[in-house]
Write a structure and sequence with these properties.
Layout (H helix, E strand, L loop, with lengths): L5 E5 L4 E5 L3 E6 L7 E3 L10 E6 L1 H7 L5 E6 L6 E6 L3 E8 L7 E21 L2 H4 L4 E6 L2 E6 L2 E6 L5 E3 L2 E9 L3 E10 L10 H17 L8 H13 L31 E2 L2 H12 L2 H14 L10 E2 L10 E2 L13 E2 L10 H15 L8 H15 L18 H17 L3 H21 L23 H4 L8 H13 L1 E2 L2 E2 L17 E2 H13 L3 H13 L10 E3 L4 E3 L5 H26 L10 H9 L1
Antiparallel strand pairs: 1-2, 2-3, 3-4, 3-5, 5-9, 6-7, 7-8, 8-9, 9-14, 9-15, 10-11, 11-12, 12-15, 13-14, 16-17, 18-19, 20-21, 22-23, 23-24
Helix pairs in contact: 4-15, 5-6, 5-7, 5-15, 7-9, 9-10, 13-14, 13-15, 14-15
Length: about 625
């Protein structure tokens, strides 16, 4: 299936991808970054999956073809409902993961809607990313347990499961009004079997949990539904015990079908910090923002030269990158990778992200995280010695290091924010002098002298979509001629069928073969730039197009291929959802201001400076 044919269910510990065909093709237990027990997404059914759907043999015998499928989330929740309409009747498959339980579980309820439908289930458990076949025992008439090494999965259902070719299968019939539950639970194998769950009781509890959580959202207005779905997606990517938020549920979904740009995104990136914090704060979720801030402060503790670009949800630093040759990859896109070598790269922009997230936390009214002041001082002392170095940049290139303009700008952000935050006047003045020196360096070396626009790296003529962040972080006003020319150059060089590419991959700058889809977060950044430039109609037009690129249940992958009209990259990914939230809030704020202006002319005072305008766009 296409990437957009999946939906996510989760319990804030791990998550699963459910296809439109009723098959769970990706699941890691018990954490996001644990080894997968269902890995068919990156291979074939025999690499692990769990199918519940109308019986294919019965439907084929009737000659009616595939059933008609319709799906949705139940209100503002992560409870997925997939409806199959066949020639004889309709069934609804309800999929969710209970929250706050001792065990990690998936509950699936088959509900008869009308008529009768012949159903089938096929459970193929393969631990260790599809390679380890478990030992399966029948415990009683309703319980089957699968064990391999440290892992134990139990399946409880009134349907009689039978062993067939190293998997468990059954066929059953559901009539209108009937409900058939299935509960799959994980526990480490040296413990007793997972607790028995009543499917209907935990469904009610889960629905109440999501109803309570979504009621906290303070966003009202035109795009509230899209914002809420993106907030729920971010919540599904969060690890409740620590507060870390993974970039995506998956690994190795390709940025180019059949290509090698396949990376593991089941980790927490520091550069996501500012945007994620803003999204939660502006939507009213101060608790999530505060937990995320504390996770951040914990994981960066230590020597500043050991700061990494990413960490595990627990804060682990060792994320060694390995290839799994036994998996053929999504649509033969190899290699399949686990771990991520980019964790060891030098990416100077994360120092700016770190400084900005502390600033946004303070402005958002969050209580100070422990050692916030000491951390700032220590890291800025280190940054003062390394900001002139080339690095791998925001896109984590695997080629030669460059003096990337975005990286330099984010080092400016680090000192700029600190100069406004510290109370020691001498130290604030010192930080301001460094910020001014970096600003001057960027404007001298990061601008193409012929075109008058910023470029990807010092001495380059290439464009990079990360330059769209310059006005968003307040480096220069959006209406500065260099920013306007940069936006125009990006429109000319990096837009494919109305969507923004990250950079020009054909140059070989990243050390990889060329070709990938349009990066959705960058397209949202362009909409933000349009808004700041006063191009409100263009901003709304682009935003409306982007939100329509989400799948039928409102989820986004990392990239989109405008030629093949399909999603690419890991899924669902936090970055485009965060970008959607912040762009939607900017647009709603702008519309509210316009509405207020029509009611009453607004008086501009001198107290509203350029810095204040930049901060409003940032927030």
């Amino acid at each position: 299936m296409r990437i957009e044919d999946y939906a996510v269910i989760g319990d804030c510990h791990t998550a699963a991808l459910v296809g439109r065909d009723g098959s769970i093709d990706w699941l890691c237990m018990p954490r996001f970054d644990s080894a997968a027990c269902f890995a068919a997404l990156l291979g074939r059914p025999e690499h692990g999956r769990w199918l519940i759907a109308p019986d294919r043999r019965v439907e084929a015998y009737r000659g009616k073809g595939a059933p008609h499928v319709r799906r949705r989330y139940r209100g503002d929740s992560l409870i997925l409902e997939t409806e199959f309409r066949t020639a004889t009747g309709t069934v609804r498959l309800i999929d969710f993961m209970p929250l706050n339980g001792k065990d990690r579980s998936i509950v699936r309820i088959v509900e008869g809607v009308s008529g009768h439908v012949a159903m089938e289930t096929e459970l193929i458990i393969r631990f260790d990313y599809g390679i380890t076949i478990p030992w399966v025992n029948r415990i009683d008439s309703k319980t089957v347990a699968a064990v391999a090494g440290p892992n134990l999965l139990s399946i409880r259902t009134p349907v009689e499961l039978k062993g067939e070719n190293m998997h468990s299968a059954a066929r059953f019939k559901v009539r209108a009004g009937e409900r058939v539950p299935f509960v799959l639970s994980y526990r480490e194998s040296h413990y007793e079997l997972p607790d028995t769950l009543d499917a209907d009781i935990v469904l009610e509890q889960t629905e109440k949990h999501w109803a309570f959580w979504t009621e906290l959202c303070k966003v009202k207005g035109k795009w509230r539904n899209e914002v809420m779905r993106s907030l729920l997606t971010l919540k599904s990517l969060s690890y409740q015990p620590t507060g870390g938020i993974v970039a995506a549920v998956t690994t190795s979904l390709p940025e180019q079908i059949g290509g090698g740009r396949n990376w593991d995104y089941r980790y927490c990136w520091l550069r996501d910090a500012t945007f994620t914090l803003l999204a939660f704060l502006n939507a009213g979720y101060t608790e999530e923002a505060n937990v995320w801030q504390h996770w951040l402060v914990r994981v960066i503790a230590g020597a500043p030269e050991q700061l990494q670009t990413m960490y595990s949800v627990m804060g682990d630093k060792r994320l060694e990158e390995l290839e799994l040759p036994h998996l053929p990859g999504y649509q033969n896109s190899r290699p399949v990778r686990i771990g991520n070598a980019a964790a060891q790269q030098l990416q100077l922009d994360i120092y700016g992200e770190l400084a900005d997230v502390l600033t946004q936390a303070r402005k958002g009214g969050l209580p100070p995280a422990p050692r916030r002041g000491e951390i700032r001082k220590t890291f800025l002392t280190h940054l003062e010695t390394i900001w002139k170095k080339p690095d791998e940049g925001i896109w984590e290139i695997r080629g030669e290091r460059q003096h990337f303009v975005h990286s330099k700008v984010m080092t400016w952000v680090a000192f700029d924010r600190a100069s406004n935050a510290v109370t020691d006047k001498r130290r604030a003045a010192h930080y301001r002098r460094i910020a001014d020196r970096i600003h001057k360096d960027i404007c001298a070396k990061g601008v193409d002298p012929k075109r008058g626009c910023f470029v990807q790296a010092y001495g380059s003529t290439r464009m990079d979509a990360s330059l769209l962040l310059l006005p968003l972080v307040g480096f220069l006003p959006a209406k500065d001629k260099r920013i306007r020319r940069t936006v125009a150059a990006i429109e000319k060089r990096l837009i494919r069928k109305g969507l923004v590419l990250r950079y020009e991959t054909e140059t070989g700058i990243d050390g990889l073969p060329p070709g990938e889809g349009a990066f959705l977060a960058c397209s949202f950044w362009l909409a933000d730039n349009y808004l700041m430039l006063g191009r409100r109609a263009d901003a709304r037009r682009l935003f409306n197009r982007l939100k329509r690129l989400g799948n039928d249940v409102g989820l986004f992958a990392e990239e989109y291929d405008p030629e093949a009209k399909r999603m690419l990259g890991n899924f669902p990914q936090a970055f485009p959802h965060v970008a959607l939230i912040n762009t939607a809030l900017n647009l709603m704020q702008e519309e509210n201001k316009n509405h207020a202006r029509k009611k009453k002319p607004r008086k501009i005072t001198r107290r509203q400076g350029a810095g204040d305008r930049r901060r409003r766009h940032r927030s």
